[in-house]
Amino acid sequence: MVENTLHTRWRLEVPVAAEDRLCAWLDEQGASAYYREVDAPFTFYAYFPPHLEVPSADGLKAFEGVKLQEAETFADEDWLEKSREGFGSFDVAKGFYIKPLWDEAPSPVGRTPIVVNPGLAFGTGGHETTRLCMEHLETLAEAGRLEGPILDIGAGTGILALTAFLLGAKDVTAFDADPDCGPAMEELVELNQDVLQGRKPYDSFVGLLDNPRVNGPYSGLLANILLITIQELLPRMAEITRPGSWLVASGILAEQQDEALLSLVSQGFQPKKMLQEGAWVAILAERMP
Fold first, then answer.
1. How far apart are CA 206 and CA 231, in angstroms?
2. Rounded distance, CA 287 to CA 195, Å?
3. Which residues, in sequence order, are bridge partners of residue 197?
């Protein structure tokens, strides 16, 4: 391999089933950013910084269906513009408007803007599962069920915790096991001071579900993570909730729907509503007595 002195961008074809494993591999290889376009054909991009030994494309063979469509290099002066390609502003659910930090245009009337920094951590609104969870939160808000306390498990940037707060929740905690998500959650608050006006939307920390800062019982849980992780954590989720508490579970492929529903019921969570977008589903469930 030859060390590259320019930025490198890969344009990829990535099946949704391979996305999480590929992102983990890209992190290991030193990728500086990656994202999927929010509009069809949903092209996936990965960036590598200068002076990094760019990995061989042969490594992509480990991921079924992943194909490198184009590799290009560009100088520092092009980096900002290149990183902004493919991520524009867009509506989410009934009342939100996701916009990258460089978009200074006014938000649509009647929609609450959420400013994001694409590429730092999962949770920019560009993924189907995030949007589905935000829809469920709107439903819960309309039913007056965001009274709290609420726990966002595997929060990423904290976008779901922020959404819950903006919908009226008053006692929200967000955490993630990834150390990079600590600064990302703090940055999300800073980026949205125009709408927050000095208010603190959530407490946040880096850690696991067994952290002493997890103090139930919670009236609501958010878990936009992989199904296998949800299944591992469900017994603990049951311990920290009371009967009638809700759980929004996503990061679940539509083909895993039946498996997810059975897992929820087996741990005392009764499915109440399911939303689907593309290949992904998000389930709203309620803790049974």
1. 21
2. 33
3. none
Judge contact between 56 and 36, C-beta under 8 A.
no
1-16: string of b/e by CB count within 10 Å (b at 16+)?
eeeeebbbbbebebeb
Closest CA to 44 of 63, 274, 75: 63
Instruction: Locate 77 and state its tokens.
Output: 């002066």
Residue 195 φ/ψ, nearest 5 degrees: -90, -30
107 is a domain residue: no
Identify the domain containing residue 228 by its residue range: 121-287
CA distance 221 to 248: 6
Q: What is the distance in angstroms between the CA of the first residue and the CA of the last residue of the chain?
A: 59
Q: Are 55 and 29 in contact (CB under 8 A)?
A: yes
Number of domains in the chain: 2
Instruction: Judge if 73 and 139 occupy the same domain.
Output: no
Does residue 78 have a pLDDT over 80? no
What does DSSP assign to residue 254? G
The answer on 69 and 129 residing in a single domain is: no
Q: Within a domain: residue 100?
A: no
- The DSSP bridge pattern shows strands 218-224 and 241-253 to be parallel
Dump pLDDT digits (tens) for 194-227.
999 999 999 999 999 999 999 889 999 999 998 9
